[in-house]
């Protein structure tokens, strides 16, 4: 339970509603900023204006997945009000106050460093990334179906990268009956791909390996599907680039060659915002319970 905890939730999208639901169920006291247009009311959560919040009693601040922009502004789909997280606001919080965000940037790093507060980036955690790979794969299947005129079953699919997303993508497309090859650079990844019953190849041989590819799915967040790779693909190949912006594909060259290449960020929030929110809510609940326990220990 989170009884006695004071938490400020600043802005966000539908995923934040699952977080608010879970934390209020656990008896935390929540101040919501940027939710004026939300019809639903949660027992234990009150809608407030940023200027009305007493940050000196906050045990945690929860930001949306993208955190802030480079000017400190926080996006919200439930209000037209501008919310900005400043150094002044964070410095009003007690020393133990933890800031939770999906990811960070230079602005947010500077604010937490200059105020000496702890920042937890949920998307850096393996558990969050692995759970999140489930809706990501479902979104990738949706895109593959929408943008091709052939079945996944029986098609030749090249997956790039065997990280948390790559492994889930490769396994699921193989389970759907596709012929899946996975490209990686580490020998242990090549061994794991083989162990999974899939075809492994070293990324050095990428141009050759895409010669008969129907769908190429990239999870590597660096320039990898370069012009010399695209030049070898059959004209009907579909590229689905899952890597974070700007992706790993030479989109300009793909367009020039007439190869369809799609950058597909944020699939969990698009195809399954409820599940994506529950993934974050469950991990946050555990982390906040840990914060509460360590706070009690330091008082005893
Ligand atoms: P991850 O576990 O870190 O995996 C990244 C993979 O890329 C690893 O196999 C890594 O191999 C490889 N890699 C990284 N740099 C490389 C390089 N220079 N050359 C060759 N291989 C390289 O990351 P993840 O959690 O799977 O996420 C992958 C990407 O998808 C990220 O950009 C993430 O933000 C994005 N993502 C997108 C969505 C969406 O909806 N589109 C959802 C979730 C995540 P090594 O171990 O050899 O470095």
TrEMBL record:
Output the InterPro entries linked to this UniProt entry.
AlaDH/PNT_NAD(H)-bd, Dipicolinic_acid_synth_A, DpaA_N, NAD(P)-bd_dom_sf
This one is known as: Dipicolinic acid synthetase subunit A
Q: Which gene encodes it?
A: dpaA
The regions listed as transmembrane in this protein's record are: none
The chain positions of domain Dipicolinate synthase subunit A N-terminal read 6-123
This protein's source sits in the domain of life called Bacteria
- Give all residue intervals belonging to the Alanine dehydrogenase/pyridine nucleotide transhydrogenase NAD(H)-binding domain: 151-289
Biological source species: Rossellomorea oryzaecorticis
